Amino acid sequence: MEDFKYCIWFKPEKEHEWNKYTNEFPIHMTIKSKLLKSSLKDFNNIIFLNKNIKVKLVGNLYQTKLNNFYSLQYNIVPINNEIPTWWPFNAHISFKYQYSKEFNDNEIKELDNIIKTKEGLLDTISVYKCTGHFSKWKKYIYT
Q1: Total Cβ atoms within 10 A of residue 79
Q2: Per-residue model confidence as pLDDT tens for the chain (143 residues)
Q3: Which residues, 6+ apart, have CB-to-CB distance to 79 below 8 Å?
Q4: Number of H helices, E strands in the chain
Q5: What is the pTM assigned to this prediction?
């Protein structure tokens, strides 16, 4: 399994409908991944940022593969086009994950048809420990 170590995620509002579409993980945009616990302090300016950013899904739903880890995702951009300096290259929201096999065309089309809302408000920055199966990834209480 791919070990993403500690990750900084920007998540949409709890009641946003995107939260209904994932398979056992919180919906999010990854700001940083594969961080060591000792390096988290270097990102306090992001982790403790109290900011809301309205985003929109752009382009088409697509699949990525990293080793044996598959993801279905949409690229996102801030609606006001003011991109923060810490905004990740190729920013995206992941909707589905799985290991060992690609998503087939029907699975991609089915998810794409379900996602009707193309805009959302990202309002919560959290640190997650992303080691092991994605269904076991947990919020890390970082203070």
Answers
A1: 13
A2: 899 999 999 999 999 999 999 988 999 999 999 999 999 999 999 999 988 999 999 999 999 999 999 999 999 999 986 789 999 999 999 999 999 999 999 999 999 999 999 999 999 999 999 999 999 999 999 87
A3: 54, 55, 56, 119
A4: 2, 7
A5: 0.94
